[in-house]
Here is the input.
Amino acid sequence: MIVVVLFGLTGCWNRAELNELWVTAATGVDTSDDGQWIVSYQIIVPSAIASGTGGGSGGSSQPASYVFSVKAKTFNQAWSYSTMESSRRIYIAHNRVIYIGKKAAEKGLEHLVDFYLRNTEARELVTMVTTDGLASDLLKKIMPPEKLQGAAMHDLIDNESDILSVYPKVRVYDFVLSMNSDSRSIGIPVASLVGEKNQENEKEAEGLDVLKKTSTPLKLRLTKLAVFQNGKLKGFLNEEQGLGVSYLSQKIKNTEISFPCSEQSGRELYSSLRVNSADVKLRPGKSGYHYTMQVKVKVNGTLIDTTCTKDISQTQTIRDMEGEISKEVTRVIKEGWSRLQELGVDAAGFADQIHRKFPRDWRTVKKDWDQEFKKMELDIQVDARIRRPGLQQRHIGSKT
Here is the structure.
């Protein structure tokens, strides 16, 4: 009986051979005029990567990826309908990035989130990126010198999030958590084409010839931060405002601060601090009938660049620099805060802090939190420390 049972357990009943699948590197989400979804898939062409032709070097050039779009009422239907124009089954488990078109973002992403949570093949750790226009247009663009644009964009956001923290990485999982939080808001990086925009350059960016150049007229770049509330796009923040929100939402890892010299006399003299650690503590409070938030920021870093003429080996010079750094961080935080209040979107997640601090008040406040948020005041306290002035103790030409 045991031998008979073992015969029934052999083999893989749900196996899938690689030559039967199209592995997806990135996905794009747009909406049509009739309200349906347009899902675009950037699939990997293994033969082009294996042969090296995907780099556009000699021989019969072949792109490393291929993009096609499917129009459907739901995301799962689009996935199923892809079999009508694809010789293989679309495999989305290795999808790295989701591009979200502007119209799709304004419509709302509840259906997208539902698809990624219900589907056993889809992974909720996929990085989310929004666009100014159509997501399908960005998927077709090549990102030199990388062959696979989807994988390259994923790595770009990872590096930016770790080094600058202006546009922190947001995954589908993070988006789901934001939709179920008290603030119901979050910020997602925006990728745009920058450079000399014209029909010829945009067409060139979709071909392999762009990989043969040392510099391209168009490039994909993170340009701003899109803020969402209740799963829908509400507005955009520029670079400084995005960095300010990163401080308020405690997402700063490492970043760089450029600050002016205190002895400026008609000249623009700046220095740069590489932030090694940034500790942000939030303390909610109440003043009268409105709420306040005390923001304490401790910044430690290394001086990596300076044009100040004062002797930085002197303690007082370092103290003056630390004062300028504190002013700059305070200014950036106020920029981001002002923009959030203008939009009425709590992308910093202050609602969760208020709920924990004042649970009884929250029962009534949560209904009108959008309006209460606009009345909230910040108390910003920044403590900046230059731990290492660098290898050069004195700036060349410094006063002695």
The first helix runs from residue 2 to 9. The radius of gyration is 25 Å. The chain has a mean pLDDT of 88.
